[in-house]
Automatic annotation (TrEMBL):
InterPro entries membership: Acyl_CoA_acyltransferase (IPR016181), GNAT_dom (IPR000182)
Residues of the N-acetyltransferase domain: 29-187
Protein name listed in UniProt: GNAT family N-acetyltransferase
Coiled coil: none
Superkingdom field: Bacteria
Length: 187
C-alpha cells in the first residue's frame, strides 16, 4: 500500500518576515532549550509528536546516529512545557551559507488546539534567526526554511503561513503506507 503525499517547502528570507503569534493566555507555557543532546528525550519528542501523523523516518536510527545528529553545531531542540509537562518541540539545524532548517516542529496530540503551536513556532523561528549568536562559528542566518506535508496536522500549513512563511516548492510523491508508533487508541 502507498500514499500520495504532497510536500510543501516554505521559507522566510528576513527576520522581519516573522508574524509572531501571541503566547497562550492563562497557561503556564514555557519554552526551554534542551542544551544537552539526549537521544532518548529527542526520540520521545519525535515519536510523541509524530506518532499519529506518520513520522517514521528517524525511528530506525541507532542511539549513536541520534547522538551524531543532535551533536552537530547549530542543531538545537526547543521544548514547550505546559505546567511542567512536555507539550511539543521545534528542532533547528544549521546548514551552509547561513541557512537554518526547522527540521521538526509539532505538538503532542493532547496539547493541540490550545494556541501553543503558533507561540512555539514563533519562538522557534526567532531562535533560528539568532542561531549564530549562540554558535559563533556559524554564518549569521540569512534564510529559515521548513517543509510540511499532507500527512501533517490539519492546521500546520495555516500556522506556517500565518507566521509569515512563503511557499517556494511543491512536490507530489508516492510513499509507503507504514504503521506509526502511536499514540495509542484514545490518546
Amino acid at each position: 500500500m502507498s500514499l500520495t503525499v504532497t510536500t510543501w517547502s516554505l521559507e522566510q528570507t528576513a527576520p522581519t518576515d516573522l508574524l509572531p503569534a501571541a503566547a497562550p493566555e492563562g497557561d503556564d507555557v514555557r519554552i526551554i532549550r534542551a542544551e544537552v543532546p539526549s537521544p532518548e528525550f529527542s526520540r520521545f519528542l519525535y515519536a510523541s509528536v509524530g506518532g499519529d501523523i506518520h513520522w517514521t523516518d528517524r525511528l530506525s536510527l541507532s542511539y549513536a546516529q541520534w547522538q551524531e545528529e543532535l551533536a552537530k553545531p547549530g542543531v538545537e531542540t526547543w521544548v514547550a512545557y505546559d505546567k511542567g509537562t512536555p507539550a511539543g518541540y521545534v528542532e533547528l539545524a544549521a546548514q551552509e551559507g547561513g541557512v537554518v532548517e526547522i527540521v521538526y516542529f509539532g505538538l503532542i496530540p493532547a496539547f493541540r488546539g490550545r494556541r501553543i503551536g503558533g507561540h512555539l513556532l514563533s519562538y522557534g523561528v526567532r531562535r533560528a534567526w539568532d542561531l549564530a549568536e549562540r554558535w559563533p562559528e556559524l554564518t549569521p542566518t540569512k534564510r529559515v526554511w521548513l517543509h510540511t506535508c499532507s500527512k501533517d496536522g490539519e492546521h500546520a500549513m495555516d500556522n506556517y503561513l500565518r507566521r509569515g512563511f512563503k511557499l517556494f516548492d511543491t512536490k507530489i510523491e508516492q510513499e509507503p503506507d507504514v504503521p506509526t508508533p502511536g499514540p495509542w487508541q484514545g490518546a
